Structure formats: structure tokens, C-alpha cells
Amino acid sequence: MEIRTIVDAGPLVGWLNEADQWHAWSVSALSARRGPLHTTEIVLGEACWHLGGNTQAAHALLDLVRKGAIVLARPWPEHLSHTQHVMLKHPSMDAADASLVSLAELSPKAVLVTTDRRDFEPCRGLRDRALKLLLPE
Amino acid sequence: MKTVTLKIPDGLDVKIRRALTRRKENFSDLARRALAREVEEGDVDFAKLAAPYRGMFKGPANLSSREGYGDKNHR
Q: Above 0.85 for ipTM, yes or no?
């Protein structure tokens, strides 16, 4: 399956949380994407953690994985050394963010949807290519 | 373009022939359109499937922007 959209934890949380500052943006950005969203297990875990662990909202995300609306891509362990290189190159990035950079580099046509301008905007992949980002204005 | 062979029940064949006559269309065009629609509608779409969960709770306004596992304050 061709990966067209990679999603960070922020827009997933923003979709579910009506009071979120990025709720309207998340709904608009993700509604405009066709097909399923792709993310990594560590990012899904991060989103569930933000949603309070074992909560209805966390279960909603897990349901969306079961239904195929969110697809878990697995850049690890095959591309783990790439992820670590990204982390070393960008010290503000954690393993979850860097897993998405690895996934984006493996899927050059994909757009990465995130609310995290600070970490992702300055990030360039290991091949020094800018990532295709969809960020709030 | 690929050529495919399709087996269809007699009853469906009668209905298709009638529709083709009515629409002045050939079988290939109708089959291509029907198959394309079936495949496209079968595609999983996040926005459609996630619609019932949109805004399902009210949490902190900055929840989507909070630091993840990299939050140095957790160390």
C-alpha cells in the first residue's frame, strides 16, 4: 500500500479533543487527506498516553487502527539505525518524532501531518531533503 | 489495458443486457465503471471512519501540543 499521509500524535489528539486549540485545524487537515493515515506504534502509544491511557478516547484510536483507518507502519527494527541518526542530528527529537522522519524518508510521496512546528520544520532527512509537512499556519 | 473474463448468473445477465440497451452503452464501459466504483468505495478513509469520534471529549486546549516522550521535565 502506498503511504500518502503520515500522522503525528498531535493531529490525532486534536481530532478527538473538541476543546483543543488545534481541533478545527486537525479536522480540516485530516479530512482533506484521502485513504488511511499511517503512523508508527510509538507515536500511537504517545497519543494514547496524552489521552490518559485507558480512556474512551484512547480506545477510539485503537478502534481506528482495528478498522484500518490508521495503519501502523513499521520502520523498526530494519531502519532503527536511521532513526537513531536522525535523533543524533536533531537533539530535540525524541524516538517517536524520529520514527516518523524515518517513515517519511521511506515514503517520499507522503505528507507528514503534525502540529509540532518546532521539531519538524527545521528537520531535514539524512539525505538533506526537506520533509513534506502539513502544519498549522 | 487488461482483458478479463467474467462469469455472471443468467438473471444478472438479463438485467445487464436490458440496461445496456436502455443506456445505449456497451458491456465493457458499464463493467469498468462499476468495478472502479466498487474499488473506490471500498477504500478505507480515515475521515469517514473517524467521523463519529470527532470532538468526542473536551480536554485541555494544549493537549495536542504537549511534549511526548521527549519531555525533559519527566526525567
A: yes
